[in-house]
Specification:
Blueprint (H helix, E strand, L loop, with lengths): L3 E10 L3 H12 L5 E4 L15 E3 L8 E2 H14 L3 E3 L2 E6 L4 E6 L3 E12 L3 E3 L15 E3 H11 L6 E5 L3 H12 L3 E7 L8 H8 L6 E3 L1 E7 L6 E6 L12 E4 L2 E4 L3 E3 L2 H6 L23 E3 L10 H20 L12 E5 L3 E5 L2 E2 L7 E8 L3 E10 L2 E11 L5 E6 H5 L7 E6 L2
Parallel strand pairs: 1-2, 1-8, 2-5, 8-19, 10-17, 11-12, 11-17, 12-13, 20-27
Antiparallel strand pairs: 3-4, 6-7, 7-8, 9-18, 14-15, 15-16, 20-22, 21-23, 23-26, 24-25, 24-27
Length: 427
């Protein structure tokens, strides 16, 4: 099979909300040789099956469904005549930014890129990672698979439903299944707090009288051919089931909403350094990974709560990739890291992980998630040992991203700065 080498200024892997926003921003930054590679037969990514509203409140100042939100970006990309190659799977990305693809139309192709943007999104954590006892009957679905069945395929996964995990997709599917005529018995969550947005807990569970069982998990699945029932037990502080607390719930469907993982097999194979916390690339203020000219954004970088923030982040990555691709003299050598941003005392991680004050914009948004539910805590930022920000937050939860803003002039004024720390404090 012959290989055809081609060249593009910026190659974007993924045609979902992150990839589209990055492509548009790269074009508008001056790099008009942009190519988007998408493995599906249509653009839009996961938004195509997210027919509920709540998208676009930050970006467009109006409430849109997922397909409507995606359509805005698809239309813009088409107006700019950005090249998009559908039905194309990326097999490999080399450290030299050579992208290998395969498709039914073109076979295997190799593409040399001046810059690459990783925008592959995320995937659901599988049931196998949970080690749940019982058989593996029909009727066990990930929440995203069930969402596609209902919203795109027009199929009902079941009628009597138990949901394990309170991530946003699971919460939304609790409401969706109820609206389609199914009975959602309960949502069980192993943690003492929900992993979803507060608004989704209210709108998807409370408004429909669906119970949320915190500190509970499924300990048994009954049924050989089809799910017949599940047993749910309370768990202790170490998340171990407490004997004697089991309750049996008859059902024909078990949906799993037990977390999302950034889709980083390509990143790992390329040699990109990944964070052990987010499972996504470690990036600097320009969203550049440890490989020069390779940038990351969206859920492949860290799992977001709102798609509006995905678009904002991806636009920055696309613009930075465009600048890199047009600065030919800056493409050699290792990526410079800058000042490390350290997450501690209740802050799980930050994005970015490094900041170079000389290269950052006037203001830089640092996003992070907290490790637990907190009330009346202060979000503090330290430059070495000096506290420079101290802002009280009434409530913080792992399901919702937080942020702080760093100013370039403040960082430049501190010559020899060794570390930036983001932490939570009680006073």
């Amino acid at each position: 099979m012959s290989k055809v080498m081609e060249h593009h200024g910026v190659v974007i892997v993924g045609g979902g909300p992150a990839g589209l926003a990055a492509a548009i921003a790269a074009y508008e930054a001056g790099q008009h040789d942009v190519l988007v590679l998408e493995r599906d037969v249509q653009l839009g990514g996961i938004l195509n099956q997210c027919i509920h509203n709540g998208f676009g409140l930050h970006t467009f100042k109006e409430e849109l469904t997922g397909p409507e939100y995606a359509a805005r970006f698809i239309q813009k990309a088409q107006e700019l005549d950005i090249a998009c190659r559908l039905g194309t799977m990326v097999l490999d990305i080399s450290p030299e930014r050579v992208v290998t693809t395969v498709s039914a139309a073109d076979g295997i192709r190799t593409i040399a890129a001046d810059a690459v943007v990783l925008a592959m999104g995320c995937r659901e954590r599988p049931r196998g990672a949970l080690a749940t006892p019982g058989y593996r009957p029909a009727g066990v679905y990930s929440a995203g698979t069930a969402q596609r069945l209902v919203n795109i395929e027009g199929q009902m996964p079941g009628r009597e439903v138990v949901i394990l995990g309170s991530g946003d997709i699971g919460l939304i599917m609790a409401r969706r299944m109820t609206l389609e005529g199914a009975h959602v018995v309960c949502v069980a969550e192993v943690m003492p707090y929900s992993g979803g947005l507060k608004r989704n807990i209210v709108q998807c569970l409370d408004d429909f009288g669906i119970p949320l069982l915190l500190s509970h998990t499924v300990v048994d699945v009954e049924g050989k051919d089809r799910v017949e029932a599940v047993s749910i037990a309370e768990v202790d502080e170490r998340m171990r089931p407490i004997p004697g607390t089991e309750v049996r719930y008859p059902c024909d469907t078990l949906m799993l909403s037990v977390g999302l993982l950034p889709e980083n097999e390509l990143s790992r194979a390329a040699g990109v350094e990944l964070s052990p916390v987010t499972r996504g690339p470690i990036v600097d203020q320009s969203l550049q990974t440890s490989i020069p000219g390779v940038f990351a954004c969206g859920n492949v970088l860290h799992v977001h709560d709102l798609v509006d923030f995905v678009s904002q982040e991806a636009a920055e990555a696309g613009a930075q990739a465009a600048h890199f691709s047009m600065a030919k003299d800056a493409q050699d050598g290792a990526a410079e890291r800058g000042v490390p941003v350290v997450a501690t005392d209740g802050v799980r991680y930050t994005v970015p992980s490094f900041v170079d004050p000389q290269k950052m914009a006037d203001k830089l948004t640092v996003r992070f998630r907290v490790a637990n539910e907190y009330c009346d805590r202060y979000v503090s930022v330290y430059y070495d040992d000096e506290r420079v920000q101290h802002r009280k937050k009434r409530v913080m939860a792992p399901g919702e991203m937080e942020q702080v803003v760093l100013k370039r002039e403040d960082l430049l004024a501190r010559e020899g700065l060794a570390q930036i720390t983001v932490k939570l404090e009680e006073e």
